[in-house]
Amino acid sequence: QVQLVESGGGLVQTGGSLRLSCTASGQTFSSHAVGWFRQAPGKERLFVAAISWSGDSTHYGGPVKGRFTISRDNVKNTVYLQMNSLQPEDTAVYYCAAAKGYSGYDSVEAEDDYDYWGQGTQVTVSS
Question: Who has the most CB within 10 Å: 2, 9, 17, 39?
Answer without folding.
Answer: 2
